[in-house]
Amino acid sequence: MKIFKKIMMPAAVVVVSAVFAPEIFAQRITAEEVESKSKDEFIDGLLGRMTVDEKIGQLNLPSYGNVKPDAKKSDIAGRITRGEVGGIFNIFGVDDIRALQEVAVEESRLGIPIIIGADICQGYKTTFPVPLALSCSWKPENIEEVARISAREVSTDGVCWTYSPMVDISRDARWGRVKEGAGEDPYLGSLMAAAWVRGYQSDDLSADTTIMACVKHFALYGASESGRDYNPVDMSRVTAMNYYMQPYKAAVDAGVGSVMTSFNEFESVPATGNSWLLRDILREEWGFEGFVVSDYTAIKEMVSHGVGNQDEVSLQAFKAGVDMDMIADFYDGSLKRLLDEGKISEKELDAACRRMLVAKYDLGLFHNPYRYCNPERGEKELRSAANLAASRRIAAESYVLLKNDGDLLPLDGVKKVAVVGPLADSRANMCGSWAKDAVTGEYNGLVENLRKALGAGVEVVYARGCNLVDDEKYEYNFTSREINKRGDGKELLAEALKVVNGADVIIAAMGEAEAMSGEGASRAILEMPDCQKTLMDALDATGIPVAMVLFTGRPLALERQAAQADAVLNVWMGGSEAGAAIADVLTGKVNPSAKLTMSFPRVTGQCPIYYNHKNTGRPMAPEAWYTRYVSNYIDVPNEPLYPFGYGLSYTEYEYGQVNLSSDEMTADGTIEASVVVTNAGQRDGEEIVQLYLRDMVRSVTPPVMELKDYKRIALKAGESRTVTFNIDVNDLKFFNSVLDYVAEPGEFTVMIGGNSLDVESAKFVLK
Ligand code: NOJ
User: Secretion signal: which residues (predicted)?
Assistant: First the structure.
């Protein structure tokens, strides 16, 4: 694997010399040993002098939790000294991390360093848009840059291992965690997964500025039944392999160092103890060589799943291939007994322990356990001007323009702008839920950024307009960082209507607070909260044009509000520079070019909704809405409100016919598919030209279309360009009923367009 590179660095830190150490430290790792031996020799030698308890200790990942004034006197420090801990997470602050690393290196018998993990999923001190938003740029290079900056920043503060990327394909916006992934498409999701890994790990994991990635949640967590978090997943292996597994595999192919299991069950077996997932696919089929960590208490949760007691579930997880136990302390309590009873062998224990030691070796921790504690570099890099500038650019590139009637945006020639809505003056709601280290006081809000961007000649007024949600307890629960003082609904609305008086345009900043999506934040109703609906009705009734700025962590069902608004800009949760980036787009400094990577339903009942669905035996005719006895609803159309791949720009693009270089292809040949795309508007812009294929007949039912490639092109106003895609047999492959990856001869439809519902097509035959 790429990450297992030879370490070139000299030993920078010498651990306490054995000569002066008491007898107990006689077997401690020495700098000389690290330097003089090959990786395998070193690890063999170390394993050979570890006790069973020390080996089990390496598989244990507790949370720091018990913050004490003196880290060295904490309970965890005691456990580290006794060799019971392989790594720690939920510990923040380089001083405490360094202190505990000192305990590991200087006070434990062998001096094995600990690995320090954290959920660095959308930046560290500089935060970036939530991953779902990032994916909407369709720019893997943006994600790589985000991961790179995250790694550079957090590696100054002691962390060398991140629980990112999350690559769970999700088709159901009720699930709160959709915002942590790249949406519904396996192809795009795979590109993004690999980009995250490249960004974090680069090609030298031992460098001080790179950290180990952990792809999660293996596997299929995004398909939890009815969108409820932690719920079972049940699907065929064919569906799993064709749609859901691809991004995990892409991360493995990119050299990801670790994999995290998921909370859900699959085929009635908890994923954390599922040997088909963890052994057959991950290790044997894909050749993954890194280590597997459970999700938080996931081994313990197998007891609640109902598959056994502590020893039984520990045995099942261990045998399935989970190396490290996050938080549960089940391995700590059970593995020794299981070994004594002959249920696991020392060889198996050694294999798991070896994977942990290899990870630490590859991270360079044996050469220098303090290499990730670098506050001096941190002073230069954390929230540096360059990082914040990248955050601003990348945020603007993730905002999706969903509607823009009458070219209301960008704001032009306006004299008075009214910014209204419960999220209009928010800072905390911009960072997203995995930005635990974000100092929200350092964020700038939308109102002040708009004032700055529009200049002194434009009056920008503000009113909150309504509470976030009607229910006080609900609002309290879901505004974790920023507790709004609730107002009287009627008074807030009256004030807003007064404030908007005479405005040329209303910017309605509404949607979800950051804690309304994320882990444990599934929603059964994807609509705007009632009080926000009332506000929108009232703003609409004023007759003043309304541009909705939609903050959200997921697709929402906002058919009525989208109809009321003249323009809708979806800004997700945009990170440190969200406010400035929103102003950049609203004022036209940046022409939006992002496209949705998850379908927006019209109503919640359409979920799960996704573009690469099956035709069924009774498909709905494209022009029809309701026909009896075909696959549709009697009350709403099948189509989403906004489809996958959709997003507008301040200019317009026109697509010509699809031309194919041939109408036949052989298994070793290629076909060129091309289309002329024209920027028919008045502004320069960037368009994401999308290539979809449909296999017309095959041995397992095909989806109606699948994204296979895309090109992002810059076009000047009035410019035309021929965009060409090469199609080869790899684009035509799928997993058949015995899970062979094959292409079957027959007819294929090529579709090219600016979103999944608006395409031009042509056909060819694979001979
Ligand atoms: C549980 C979450 O599912 C996972 O994504 C996260 O990395 C761990 N907790 C650790 O915080």
Answer: 1-21
- Is residue 574 within 8 A of residue 398, CB to CB? The reply is yes
Spacing, Cα 355 to ligand 1 middle (Å): 21
Q: Which residues line ligand 1 (CB under 6 A)?
A: 119, 163, 216, 295-296, 519
Q: What is the 3-state secondary structure (H, E, C) of 616-682?
A: CCCCCCCCCCCCCCCCCCCCCCCCCCECCCCCECCCCEEECCCEECCCEECCCCEEEEEEEEEECCC
Q: Which fold has domain 653-766?
A: Immunoglobulin-like (2.60.40)
Is 397-606 in CATH node 3.40.50.720? no
Domain boundaries, the chain: 1-117+329-362, 397-606, 653-766
Q: Report which ligand 1 atom has the smallest distance to the Cα of 163.
A: 7
Give nearest CA residue, ligand 1 atom 9.
296
Model pLDDT for residues 99-120, shown as the tens digit of each residue: 999 999 999 999 999 999 999 9
CA dihedral in degrees (9, 13, 16, 19; nearest 10)?
50
The CA 119 to ligand 1 mean position distance, Å, reads 7
Return the residue whose CA atom lies nearest to atom 8 of ligand 1.
296
Predicted pLDDT at 622: 76
Amino acid at residue number 69: P
* pLDDT at residue 10, as a whole number: 35
Instruction: From the candidates 295, 323, 540, 731, give the one annotated as an active-site residue.
Output: 295
If you compute the radius of gyration of the chain from its CA atoms, what whole number of angstroms results? 27
pLDDT of residue 429: 80
pLDDT above 50: residue 550: yes
Instruction: Report cis status (omega within 30 of 0) of the bond before 69.
Output: no
The model's pLDDT over 132-168, given as tens digits with 9 standing for 90+, comes to: 999 999 999 999 999 999 999 999 999 999 999 999 9
Q: Is 295 a catalytic residue?
A: yes
- Separation of 479 CA from ligand 1 center, angstroms? 20
What integer is the mean pLDDT of 271-281?
Answer: 98
Closest alpha carbon to 468 in 519, 426, 414: 426
Residue of the CA atom closest to atom 3 of ligand 1: 295
**Residues forming a β-bridge with 211:** none
d(CA 95, CA 669): 59
Calculate how far, in angstroms, residue 85's C-alpha sits from the geometric centre of ligand 1: 19
Q: What is the pLDDT of residue 700?
A: 98
CB atoms within 10 A of CB 6: 9
Q: Ligand 1 pocket test: pick from 130, 218, 260, 264 the residue with the most ligand atoms within 8 Å of its Cβ.
A: 260
Segment holding 723, helix H or strand E: strand 720-728
Model confidence over 427-438: pLDDT tens digits?
878 877 788 777
Nearest to 688 by CA among 601, 761, 592: 592
Q: Give the per-residue pLDDT at 530.
A: 95
Give the Å distances, CA to CA, from 487 to 362, 422, 445, 497.
55, 11, 20, 15
Over the stretch 639-681, which tens digit does the pLDDT of each residue have? Answer: 999 999 999 999 999 999 999 999 999 999 999 999 999 999 9
Distances (CA, A) of 277 to 269, 513, 744: 10, 35, 26
Q: Which of 233, 201, 239 is nearest to 218 (CA)?
A: 233
Whether 448 has a pLDDT exceeding 70, the answer reads: yes
Mean pLDDT over the full length of the chain: 94
